[in-house]
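Re: that backbone. Tokens:
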């Protein structure tokens, strides 16, 4: 975000809105490989010009790596069974299409959550991992803290608990930064001041979810930048200290192959 705005000559902003995750056009276009309801190549990349496709990664990752990704990014309790099924299946024939993966997962996940396809969590997990979505979110939050003018506001729409947790933690921690150093021998006058003020969250109404089922898991959070100056070390260090990138950094420890 920072580099893109810098190329446009923009040094600060008064407002920003992030609409996270995959878009409806991407899901609806089968060739993009995001949908478990439409057959298409098992791709899942936001940027199709770089990186491994989902099919390529699933063809080379081990059981433990696949299990960890599905459990961590999909919060799927059948992660081991799914990972083992993927590795067993590819010994006879590769997973090439979205329906290949969806049907395989459905054969393993026998219990269904109401209104949810059994492959939902697996597709979410693989997509997040392939696109490094949580790392991108961490960088976006860092950029917002750096670029947002005093009094400026930012809003984030998230669609699953991992994203929402990061945004919620960012706002809560930046609203109460003194809590992070409360046990340290720092004079009160030198305690860090709030950088953000939470303006609350909004959930979709019943009417909205009925007309747009994809909105059912959406959470909109809004915060306002205070007049407090950033710490001398800047937003990057602030984000790191508050462990906003914890989830993203853990993914680097997975035994992923070099792209």
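Recovered sequence:
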């Amino acid at each position: 975000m920072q580099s893109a705005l810098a190329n446009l000559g923009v040094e600060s902003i008064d407002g920003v809105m992030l609409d996270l995750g995959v878009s409806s056009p991407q899901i609806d276009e089968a060739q993009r490989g995001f949908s478990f309801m439409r057959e298409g190549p098992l791709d899942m990349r936001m940027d199709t010009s770089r990186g491994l496709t989902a099919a390529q990664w699933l063809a080379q990752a081990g059981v433990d790596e696949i299990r960890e990704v599905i459990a961590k990014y999909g919060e799927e309790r059948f992660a081991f069974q799914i990972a083992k099924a993927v590795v067993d299946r590819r010994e006879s024939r590769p997973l090439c299409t979205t329906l290949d993966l969806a049907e395989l997962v459905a054969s393993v996940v026998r219990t269904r959550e109401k209104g949810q396809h059994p492959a939902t969590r697996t597709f979410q997990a693989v997509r997040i991992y392939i696109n490094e979505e949580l790392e991108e979110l961490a960088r976006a939050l860092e950029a917002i803290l750096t670029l947002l003018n005093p009094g400026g506001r930012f809003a984030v729409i998230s669609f699953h608990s991992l994203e929402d947790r990061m945004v919620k933690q960012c706002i809560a921690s930046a609203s109460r930064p003194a809590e992070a150093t409360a046990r340290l021998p720092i004079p009160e006058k030198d305690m860090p001041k709030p950088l953000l003020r939470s303006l609350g969250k909004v959930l979709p109404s019943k009417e909205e979810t009925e007309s747009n089922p994809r909105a059912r898991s959406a959470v909109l959070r809004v915060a306002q930048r205070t007049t407090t100056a950033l710490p001398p070390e800047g937003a990057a260090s602030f984000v790191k200290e508050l462990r906003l990138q914890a989830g993203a950094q853990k993914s680097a420890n997975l035994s992923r192959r070099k792209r």
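The two ends are 23 Å apart (CA to CA). Residues 171 and 198 are 6 Å apart (CA to CA).
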